[in-house]
Amino acid sequence: MKSNALLVFSMLLTAIAVSCNKDGKPSETTSEDESLAGVEVAVGESGGPYKKLFMLNEGKMGSNNASVDFLRFSDGKYVRNAFAQMNPTQVLGLGDTGNDLKIHNDQVWAVINGSSLVEVFSPKDEKHIATIPVPSPRNIAFEGEYAYVTSYSGAYYGGPDILGAVYQISTKTFREVAHIDVGYQPEGIASYKGKLFVANGGGLKSDGSYDNRIMVLSANPMKVEKEIPVEINLDEIYIDDAGNGYVSTFGNFWSIHSGLYAFNAASGTASGRITGDVDVKVSCMAGAGGSVYAIGTEDEWNWDPKAVKKYRFYTVSASGKATVRDFPSTVTTPYSLCVNPENGDIYVGDAGDYLSPGSVICFDKNLKQKWIALAGINPGHFALY
User: Fold this and answer.
1) pTM, full prediction
2) Is the Cβ–Cβ distance between 232 and 251 less than 8 Å?
3) Spatial separation of the C-alpha atoms in residues 163 and 205, rounded to whole Å
4) Phi, psi (degrees; rounded to nearest 5) at 12
5) What 3-state class would DSSP assign to 5?
6) pLDDT (tens digit, 9 = 90+) per residue, 168-204?
7) What is the Cα–Cα distance from 298 to 331, expressed in whole angstroms?
8) 35-66 pLDDT, tens digit each
9) Beta-carbon neighbour count of residue 364 at 10 Å?
10) CA gap 197, 186 in Å, rounded
């Protein structure tokens, strides 16, 4: 009798731990965030090996309304403002002005620029894990057991010229280990085989000259080893597994266009501007697998708020050649980009007017729209989990 009772109890536990999707297939229900209300946007959506697509909404600067949404692939539901809902005791929520989002070792690291902090939380249920102070942080990368965060070091518009820095943070203790000065207003950062590659923008320099260098650092201990001159006002950076590097530039907004440039991470040498049928223009970019993708427009200097701009979608393979396609007009203000390396799905954060809630739109690899979801203000940074 005792053994039969244990067997029945075990079966009951199994029944509680497993539920069924609409198609009758079993699915685990172990996360507390399953109780959050969401909007079903992607019936039958498959993320391949991925469970969730996270979106960090930057919010409006100075308004303390950065937020995190996610799409859950198992049921196709898009859940808004998940972090705040799962952490009601966090008095100031996520903070002011989200600037980057990365997943590492089953943790989500959100860089919150205006609040000068990095927030770490669980991708399973969005529960708070740690908060790490970093002055005016920008972007994050990982190498070994450390996180590396670029920082403006307190520089501000109209203020004195101040070199930025990279902060080294232990992913075990969540404490700063060291920091080192780099160029002016460092933005994107990427790691490759024990080295860090930092894209310096210089957008706050008092003489308007910008910075034009990728700085190469040893990761541990941090030491500047080399500088790679590229183009002014560098922004995002990506390195694939083969060491092919790509960095975007904003230009100067009136005589030098935005663009995408290649470099070799192994040799530390620049390869020049990437071109296709037309020069690549970059409003946002993303890397996936052995390719890099960008959305941009020839009309980037048209400052008329009523202008309807024509955007293009660029795909750059390891050969360094760009293919160009017209992007659907559904997207009015492309602000962020992510490509699923498993199925080629393209996710775009559309900022709209930058003041109202934006949207996340999914296209298949042929640029056919699959779904759209209302997001937070300025949906700026994706991460696949």
Assistant:
1) 0.91
2) yes
3) 10
4) -65, -40
5) helix
6) 999 999 999 999 999 999 999 999 999 999 999 999 9
7) 16
8) 898 999 987 788 889 999 999 999 999 999 99
9) 13
10) 10
Instruction: Give the 3-state secondary structure percentages of the chain, helix then strand then coil, rounded to 5.
Output: 5, 50, 45
Query: Beta-carbon neighbour count of residue 90 at 10 Å?
Result: 15
Q: Are 194 and 218 in contact (CB under 8 A)?
A: yes
Structure tokens at 336: 């962020």
Retrieve residue 245's tokens. 């590097």
| CA–CA dist 18, 232 (Å, integer) | 54
CA angle in degrees (0–180, nearest 5) for 66-116-218: 115
Distance CA 75, CA 280 (A): 37
Task: Give the Cα separation of 101 and 96 in Å (integer).
Answer: 14
Burial class (CB in 10 A: 0-12, 13-18, 19+), 281: buried
- Structure token digits, residue 290: 């052995």
Encoded tokens for 270? 């620049």
Pairing of strands 39-40, 77-79: antiparallel
Residue 322 tokens, joined:
């760009």
Residue 159 burial (CB < 10 Å; 0-12/13-18/19+)?
Answer: exposed
Among the listed residues 182, 167, 274, the one whose alpha carbon sits nearest the alpha carbon of residue 228: 182
Q: Are residues 215 and 209 in contact, defined by beta-carbon separation less than 8 angstroms?
A: no
**Can you give the pLDDT at residue 14?**
38
- In angstroms, the CA 292 to CA 128 distance is 32
Phi and psi at 2, nearest 5°, equal -65, -45
Spatial distance between the Cα atoms of 192 and 219, rounded to a whole number of angstroms: 9
| Contact assessment for residue 78 and residue 358, using Cβ atoms and an 8 Å cutoff | no
CB 350 within 8 A of CB 379: yes
Residue 224, both tokens: 């500047």
Residue 351: exposed, middle, or buried by beta-carbon count in 10 A (0-12, 13-18, 19+)?
buried
- 274 alpha-carbon distance from chain centroid: 22
What tokens were used for 182?
């780099």
| Amino acid, single-letter form, for residue 170 | S
Domains of the chain (ranges; CATH) run: 134-272 (2.130.10.10)
